[in-house]
Each structure stands twice: as C-alpha cells, then as structure tokens.
Amino acid sequence: MVTPINLLVSKVLETLFNMAKEELAMQLRLVDDVKKLQNTLERLECYLQDSEKKIIEDDSTKRWLNQINHAMYDIEDLLEEYDALKINNSESMSSKEVRSSSSSSTKVRFWLSVKISGFKKVASNHRIGVDLRRLNKQLNDEIKGQIPELSFMINFAPTGPVESQIRSNNRTTAVVVRSDIVGNRIQDDARRLIKLLTKDDDRDNPLVYAIVGMGGIGKTTLAKLVFDDHIIASRFQVNVWVSVSQNYNENDILRNIITSAGGDGKRCHNFDSLSKKVIDMVKDKRVFMVLDDVWETKRVWNDMLRILLKRGVAEGSRVLVTTRNEEVAAQMMAVHSQRVQSLPLEDGWSLLCKSAFPAWEQLEAKDDKWNLKDIGIELVKKCDGLPLAINAIGGMLSSQSRTRESWEFILKSSSWEVKGLPDEINSVLYISYQYLPRDIKRCFLYCSLFPKGRYFKIMNAKNLWIQEGLINDEKNRSSHDVAERYFRILVQRNLVILDRVYIEAAYFKMHDLVYSLSQFLTRNENLVATEEREILNSEFDGKIKKLRRLSFIGGHNETTKIQKKCLQEQVSLRTLLTFDKTIYNIDNDLFNHLRHLRILWLRGTKVTELPASLGSLKLLRYLNLSQTPIKELPITIQNLNALRILDVSECENLRNLPSCIMKLHHLCSLTTKGTALDHLPQGVGNLNKLQLLEFIVPLDKGIARESSTVKELETLTELRQLNLCKLERVLDSSQTKSASLKDKPHLKELILSCSERDSNEVCTDDSDRIEVVFEDLCPPVQLKILKITNYFGCKLPSWLGSRLFNIRFLKITGCSNCKKLDGLGLLPFLEAFYIEGASSIKNIGPEFYTNNNIENDAYQNSVLFRRMKLLSFENMDSWEEWSSLGNDIRVMPFLEVLQIYACPKLKSIPEEVLQLNLCKLERVLDSSQTKSASLKDKPHLKELILSCSERDSNEVCTDDSDRIEVVFEDLCPPVQLKILKITNYFGCKLPSWLGSRLFNIRFLKITGCSNCKKLDGLGLLPFLEAFYIEGASSIKNIGPEFYTNNNIENGAYQNSVLFRSMKLLSFENMDSWEEWSSLGKDIRVMPCLEVLQIYACPKLKSIPEEALFHAASYLKRIRICTAPQLLLKKLHYLRFLEIIEIGNIPYLEKISGVPVLRRLKIEDYLVDLLPGDYNCTSWKGCWTAHKQNVLLSKTNYTSKNSN
User: Fold this and answer.
1) Which pLDDT does position 619 carry in this prediction?
2) For the residues of 282-311, what is the DSSP string, one character each?
3) Residue 869 pLDDT exceeds 50
4) Of all helices (H) and strands (E), which one includes residue 483?
5) 800-832 burial string, b = 16+ CB within 10 Å, else e?
6) CATH class for domain 185-339?
7) Do the Cβ atoms of 551 and 573 come closer than 8 Å?
8) Is Repeat there in the keyword field (predicted)?
9) CA-CA 20 to 30 A from 986: which of 127, 772, 818, 1121?
C-alpha cells in the first residue's frame, strides 16, 4: 500500500540486516550492495514518519512519495526472489544427499539435471545482483536533493507495539457487537414503516417502499430494524434480504434470494435455472424483500426482480428498498419514501457513548460520561449527525484513555481539515484510519480488494494478510493470533461490520463509505476492476505506475476469459483475486509474466484446468481453487516451493492430487473438504510445517501403498487444525495410536468423523473397533474445539471428560449408537455444547456431570459446567428424562442459552438449571403452556428473565394486554429466586406474585413496560437491594401502593421498615411521572439506601422526604438529570453524601456542611452553591460542564467560566 511508507522501509532494513550476514549473499558478492542500500534506507527512514496527509494534500510530495513507495516494493520483491533462491538451494542440497546412495545410472541422470538447472541458477543469481545495484542507484537518484527539503515529521499514528496502543481489554470474546439504535426517531420511523408494510392495499402487487438518505446516515440500520420485527416475521411467509450495491452480478443476487428464502442455489449454474428456482420458491407466497443499497433500477429491478416477483408472489407482498438517490425510489414507483434524517445531538451523544465505552463498562463509565460530555457533543457536531461517522470516532475513542486531554487532542486534530478527500468521504473516517496503529493500516487497506457490499470470511482475510506479508512477527505468538488481534481492533474501531447471522461471527464487510476511503488511499497501487479494459486503461492513462494488487469483480457476461494481453504488462502484480464466477479459462502463457505473484485466488470461477505456466510462480504463497470445477492439478505445481496454503475445498470434480505435491515442504495448510478425493498421496508426513490438514483415511491396503496413512501424522507436530475423515476405514488401531495426537502441543481444533451409516447396519464388532480407534486418538490437553461426527460406538472416548481441561467448544452429531454422556460437567472451560442425533440416549443423569458417583463428598459445594453459556440438544428421539442431581451442587451458573429441538419424549428440565431466559413471550397464545412450565417448582432457579419483543404501546389492544397478563401470572417463579428482569411487558398491571412471593429477591429490573400504570407492594420484599425501572411511560403517580399492597393505614405497618435492604433505586425515562407521594406516617423507608438515580423524568416535581432525609441518612450518591420541574432541597442534611451529580433542574439550594463530599458535578445550573469558607476535608475533585467550572481545595474554592 502507499501507506505507511516508513513501515515498508523498516521491514526492508530488517531483511537487509539479516541478509548481509548470510553465506549465500557472500557467495553472490551482494554484501557491499546490501550495505549501500542499508545506508540509503537509513537516511530515508529518518525523514519519514507517517505520510498519508502529505500524500493527500500536496501534489509534489504525493508524486515523490509514490515513487519511493514503488521503489520499496521493487526492493522487497527482489529480496523475496533471493529468499526463493535460498529455498531452491536448500532443496537441491537435500536431493544430493538422497541421491548419494543411489545407483550409478541414477547419479548420471541427476548430474545432468543439476548441470542444466545450474546454468539457470547462475543466470538468476547474476540478475539478482544486477537488479540490486540498479534499484540502489534508482533510490539514490530519487532522494537526492529531496531529503534536506523534507521538514514534515508527521506522527498521527502510534508506532510502538500494538498492545501498547490499545486500552487494556482482557476479554476473550473474539468480537464485540454494538447496537447502532439510539433515540426515539429511528424507532418511530421503523414503526411507521411496519404499519405501512402490513396494511392492506389493493394497488398492484408487489408494492414498493423506499428508505432514502445520504451515505452513512443509517438507512440499512432502519431497514434491519424493520426486517427483524416480529410483526413482519409473522405477516410474511418468505422474508428475503439482498445487498445490491454498485458492482453486482445478477446470478449472485438470485442465489442470495434462494439462500435467504431457505433454498439451495448451488446446483443452478445460469440465469434461467436460477430464475426458475426463485419463481418456484416464492410462488403463491406473501413475500417481504429488502433491496439494500440500490444505485440503478433498470437491470436489477425493471429487467429482473420486478418481472420474477410479478409472476408468482401472493397478494400483500412488499419490497423495501434503501438508496441514496430519490430518483431510484421514483423509478421503482415507490408508494412511500421515508427520508432518514441526521441524529439529534443527544442521540448522537448516546451513540458515541455506546461506541466509546464497551458494553460491559457502561455502568462503570457513568462518571467518565459526565466528565467528557461537553467534548463529546462537539465531536458529534463535527460528525454532522451521521451514525457511521459517530461510530467510527467512538471506536477510535474506545482505544484512548478516558481523560479530557485525550479527547480534546482528537477534537483539535488538524486532520479534521484535511484537504483532497473525495466529497462523499467524511473527514471523521479519515481520522479514524489515521489513528490506527501503522501495522494494522495495511491490513485495513487490503480489504479494499474485496467486493463492495458483500460479506467476506474472516479466516480468508487473515490468511491473505499473512501471505502478503502484512502481519509482523511477534515473540511467542503465531501469525494467526496476531492477525486475529488486528481484526479485533478493526471491529473495535467500527471500521468493519460483522455479519450477525453467523454465531461465531465468521464473516464481515465494510460500509460503503469506509470502503471508498480504503480504495482512495490505495488508488496508486490497487485496482478493483469489473472489465478487462479497466486494467488496460489504468496502465495507459498513467493512473497507476505499477499495479501491485488486482481484484477482478467482473461484469455481467455469461463467460469471461483471463487473457494474457490484459495482464502481461502487470509484472509487479502481487495479488490477483477473481470474484467473477463467469471466468472459465486462463491463457497458457499468462503466469510466465507474473513472477512476483504471491496470491492467486480463483475461488468460485468456472476454470476447469490450470496452465503448466503455474509452475513459474516461484513466490506464490496462497493458491485458492475452492468451488471450481477443476479436475486435476498440473504437475508443475511441484515448483511452487514458497507455497503455504493450497485450498481445493468443494472442488467436486477433483479425484486425485499429484504425488509431487508432497515436495512442497513449506506448505502450512491443505484443505480438501468437499472434493471427490478418496485418499491423500503418500508422503504427507514430510510436510512437517503443516498447521491445517484435512486427512482422508485410505480405503484399503492396495490404495494405501500409494497413500498417506494415519501413521504419517506422527511427524506433523505443528498442526493447529486437523480434520480426520472416514475413520471407519481404520482396521488396525495401532495406526491411530502411532498418530500421537496427544503429543501435538499446538493442536487447537480437531474434527473426528466417520462416513454416515444407518445404526441398523452396525454390528457389535464394528462398534467395539471404532471405540478403540477413537480411544487411541486422544488429543492434547491444549485442545479448544472438538467436533465428532457419525461416530457409531456405544460409548464416547474416556478422554472426553477426563483430559480436555481447555476445551471451549464441543459438538457431537450423528452418534446414533451412543447411549450415554459421561463426565462432561468437569470440563472447566467448556462454553458451548451441541449434541444432535443421539437417538439411543434415553436418560441424562448424574453421569452427564461427572464420571464418579455424585454422592462423592468431593463434589459437594462444587460448580459443574462452570463456564457453560450455550447448551443445545437436537433430534434426540428416545430422550425421556433429564434427571436432577438433587444435591447441594451448583450447575451451569453462567448459562445464557438452552436450546431443545425435536426431543418429543422429554418430560422435564432439571431444577439445577439456575438461569432461565424466556424470550418473545408475546407469541404464547395458550397460557396452559406457561402454566405447565411449573417454574415455581424449580427451587434451584436463581435468575429469571421474562421478555417480549419491543412494540409501540399504541399497537397493543385490550385483548393482547389481558392475554400477556395471564401468561406472566402463570410464570410464577420459586420463592428462592434472587434476580428477576422483565423487559417489554405490555400488560397494564404487574404479576401479583411480584410483591407477595419473592421474599429472597435481591435484584429487580423492569424495562420498557410502557403500559404498566402502577407499581404494587414492592416495599415488602425484605432482601431487595437494587431496583431499576425504565420506560414505564404510563405511570403518573407513585404512592403508598409502591410500598405495600394493603392500606397503609393498617396498623400492621406502624413502626415497620419498608424496602429494608434497598441500596440502589433508579428511575429512568418515565415521561408521565408527576408525583412521588409521601407516606406521611411513622414508617421507616429505605434505611440502607446508598444510591438514588433519577434520569429523564421531565414532569416529576418533588421527592418525598422519607425517601431522602429521614430514614435514608446514609445516602452516599445522588444523581438527578433532566428533571426540569424538580425542586431539590435540603441536600445539606445528607451528612454522608460523597457524590452529587445534577443536571437540568430548575432550582438547587445551597450545599454546605457536607463533610465527606468527594465529587460535585452540575450541568446547566449553578446557583450560589457554596459558602466562601467551605471546608471539605475529603475533597478529591470536581468536574462541571457547559456554563461554569468549580474547583475546590481543602480550605477554599474558586469559580471560573469555561467554554
């Protein structure tokens, strides 16, 4: 990439330093030239820090730095040729040693071949020396007279190790997904669209609706909110999401529609067959289709989708299109266009907080939010209310320290005013890029080669980064670990979007504007082309001096041929990616012209064979032929000594691999899944650098003589991922024992599979034999992921529950003979367990948790499945009973998801499932379902979450409200419950058991219950410590019923203590709340209250004295914000107050005599707060925003205005 040049210089210098000490360099008389080049580069490095801004703004500097950049690439190419020469020499020496013991005739033939190849090597060696001297002179000429004039020392991005630049985050989660949804406007827009889309209409079918707005403003977010709504899901029979973007292919769009509708389009190879499949799938069905990011209408709509939909869909079908251009909506004859507006300042600030403060730190970060809000608001203003820009700046802030100095530094950065960026690219996106660590910048820019608007596999992206040389070596870390960390940082900075459809977030894409930025910054060396003439024109019109990377997206033809004339001049090409599935042929001589190619990606094309010239790609590291109809590999593949990755997965016509492939001793990854291969050639044990291997056990002894056997795995000590297929073919268990899997310290993922077979075909001998085979395949203790497929033994291997102490993910499928699951509860780090098709299991009992007798004292007070988050059972036809342990043993304390599918005979769930999350309860139509759940009879249930999908209160009819009240009433939990969360409940009254039964409840949170009109009897809950209520917009008054269900005049409550254990009380977003009535009696209330929070309650006028000043004299923290009618008095009575945070209230009495106050923060109003002789012995600091600033010391205070 053009950026950062100094990183290229540093990398080349390091290589030269090592090269100067090597024997081969001395033999080739390169040492003097190497040292001269070192001196030149060291001079250059002194003047280069980070040069992107100069490249954008200054034309003369741009041209000079581009020339330097290309010179650095040329030098790097030459040094890699030198490395390839070293590899060849090493291979030759190994061959000589082998031949030394051969027959005399063999030695003669070998001597002749060495002489012939020797002449070629002499020529190659000579050329390397000549080229090195030429490049040295060229570089000297370029910098002569220029370096003294270079006065800029730009250092936007940190230059140290990546760890030191990213704020500490010890979480192991691969990614963090943040919501873009803030404020009421987008919710209102979504509800309006949903209402329109589901309304009956007699006009032509299907009706089109449009979302219109500028790039980055949130069109896709709004469309996704509509698409995911439960009303849409229940209204339409087929819901389809299609990303269109600018460079689309009609066939790909049709395949996406088929896949999204639940079909399989892989067998359809042309437009006609795909069109027919689409028509069949939507025929007579009510369809909802989202067309995201449409730029033109003729081909995608008028000539294709409109015609297809009109042929078959049922009445009431709808299309929702997102576009930047109102003309697109008009041309598609949209009956309604929803224009998306920029975010208001407050909503923008909320979104910035979501991005800048990770989800798990939102509560802890409240102090920082108050302190930084004024700077954050100014940043939001600079983003012009664009959610994309706000997310980008928030992602960048998430890696900075939370100090005013850090945020102000970004706010005042000169990069806000950078000139030369395209009009559509907001400077915020450029700043977010600028502050990336320089190592990660190149990885980010490489993503400009991927198709716009399409999701791309994360693992493939990481492999491409590694094989292009973009990942730095780090001590004690593999390249994949470093690449994974780089990717997490891009996610954290909101520069890439994860596909939330996939559980493990395996795919990602870039937003259009971020993608445009990456393409702009790489415009001098990368090209994404849709037609061959674009490649030719880039050379002829001088746009790109030397093309380094080419991504061929392809046009709209049925077939395309990669011709020599198109690429033969691109001699500096390093990466060639083809995403055009119509490519069917490659010129025979093409690869002879591309000798610097490192990456060749032909995935999904129609190429049936590769030319012999493939063997001339001496620097090739990554060859991806997956999903092609290729039948064989050329014999010249043996010349690719630098090859690290060979991917032929899903090449259904590929039946054999050439035996010479086993000469590729630097191969790290060999992927063959989904091919017609029946074995691997003999010699896989020689590939001792393999990290990823899909190994196929050969069929019989005849083939085995020419095949690799399981025994050869013994020497592959670097393996990280291993897939062992067709294990039923192993007849002698000594083979699997000799594979020595337990001695492979780097193995992290293992797949053990047999071919599918009917359980009735399995005899006892077969079952016993496969049990021994699997028992001998004992993996190392470091293993993290294990998948077992179609195992037909009666019992699982013993090592499964006794040895895999580091296992995180376990999936067992198709094990129809297996009769029990033993000892899995003792796996301390297991987070996800899937079991499917175990049709012989009838009972899951204590043996599931531990191999030993559960009565053993060693398990008392233990925690089993201590890290389990997801537990899934599927297609277990015979499973009848899931027994309870019935002992004082905790089980699955962190379980988040319990999935049970197609287990028709299962009668009950055990008591020790401590947490239960019941979602989408609005779908329950028959309350007998919830009553039969018998939650009250599960004494071990400690945490319960009851939630409905979000809906507008105006959409709730009386019948719906009555029905949900009955559903919740029947979900009465056990008295032992400690944590209860209720979300989006739309009944008018809360369940009666809430205040009358939950005597052990500690934590209660009620959010989004907008129909609820009162809170009853919560004061009688003796152990309730924290109560949050948010969004109860129908509550107008909180009175005596809040404390007790009965009449407060009842003598039983005289001298009582209500809310006796309450420590935290929080009210938020209660728009109608006007009055908080006083009890006015001799009743103590909340004597332990430490924190009182009131946010966004605009009509509240007062707080009762008994809630603050009588019983609650130990109040430590009070936070009140956006309560413009609230009169706050007598705070000086609260002697233990440590923190006061107040904003947007009309009146505040003097604060004096609060001896332990540590923090005072006031927004908007500051009315004669402190007396002049105020003395606060424990004062630590004070921050206020907007109008005034108060600074205190031990004996005095000063007041000064701030901007």
Assistant:
1) 92
2) HTTS-EEEEEES----IIIIIIIIHHHHHT
3) yes
4) helix 479-492
5) bbebbeebbbbbbbbbbbbebbbbbbbbeebbb
6) alpha beta
7) no
8) yes
9) 1121
The number of angstroms, rounded, from the C-alpha of 319 to the middle of its chain's C-alpha atoms is: 29
List the one residue out of 1077, 1123, 1093 whose CA is nearest residue 1027: 1093
The DSSP call for residue 964 is H
pLDDT (0 to 100) of residue 722? 96
997-1032 pLDDT, tens digit per residue, is 888 899 999 998 989 988 888 888 888 999 999 999
Q: What is the predicted pLDDT for the residue at 43?
A: 58
Residues 6+ apart with CB under 8 A from 356: 376, 394, 395, 397, 398
**Structure token digits, residue 616:** 């001339």
Cβ contacts of 642 within 8 Å, gap of 6 or more: 83, 84, 87, 618, 619, 620, 621, 666
3 state SS of 557: coil
Q: Are strands 1197-1201 and 1188-1192 parallel, antiparallel or unpaired?
A: antiparallel
Q: What is the CATH number of domain 523-677?
A: 3.80.10.10
Run of H or E residues at 85? helix 59-99
39, 91, 129 from 26: Cα distances, Å: 18, 20, 11
User: Residue 658: is the preceding peptide bond cis (ω within 30°)?
Assistant: no
Least confident of 169-173, 184-188, 1030-1034, 1106-1110: 169-173
Which residue ranges make up each domain of the chain? Answer: 5-149, 162-179+343-520, 185-339, 523-677, 918-936+947-1169
Crossing angle for the helix pair 438-446 and 5-19, to the nearest 10 degrees: 110
List Cα–Cα distances, 452 to 248, 389, 516, in angstroms. 9, 19, 9
pLDDT in tens, 735-745: 888 888 999 99
Q: How far apart are CA 22 and CA 1121, in angstroms?
A: 69
CA 827/CA 718 separation, integer angstroms:
25
Side-chain-side CA neighbours of 134 within 13 Å: the count stands at 8
> Which of 1114, 1081, 1116, 1120 is closest to 1101 using CA atoms?
1120
Q: Give me the CATH topology for the region 918-936+947-1169.
A: 3.80.10
Q: What is the 3-state secondary structure (H, E, C) of 742-807?
A: HHCCCCCEEEEECCCCCHHHCCHHHHHHHHHHHHHCCCCCCCCEEEEECCCCCCCCCHHHHCCCCC
Name 239's bridge partners. Answer: 288
Tell which residue, 908, 834, 842, has the closest CA to residue 878.
Answer: 842
Q: What's at 999, amino acid-wise?
A: F
Structure tokens at 27: 């033999």
Q: What is the mean pLDDT of residues 822-836?
A: 89
Angle in degrees, CA 498, 501, 504, rounded to 5: 70
Which residue would you say has higher pLDDT here, 247 or 205? 205
Question: Do the Cβ atoms of 492 and 395 come closer than 8 Å?
Answer: yes
Q: Are 230 and 236 in contact (CB under 8 A)?
A: no
Comparing CA positions, the residue from 16, 11, 6, 17 lying closest to residue 47 is 6
Distance from C-alpha of 301 to C-alpha of 306, rounded to nearest angstrom: 5
Same fold, 523-677 and 918-936+947-1169: yes
pLDDT for 185 equals: 80
For residue 982, the model assigns a pLDDT of 93
Average pLDDT, the chain: 77
End-to-end CA distance of the chain: give it in Å, rounded: 42
Range among 115-119, 767-771, 1121-1125 with highest mean pLDDT value? 767-771
Three-class DSSP category at 1007: strand
Band of residue 166 on the pLDDT scale cut at 50, 70, 90: very low
Question: 71-85, 140-154, 1136-1150: which has the minimum mean pLDDT?
Answer: 140-154
Partners of 647 in the beta sheet? 624, 671
Contacts of 993 (CB under 8 A, 6+ apart): 969, 972, 973
Q: Six-digit token pair at 397?
A: 């802030």
The reported pLDDT for the residue numbered 420 is 76
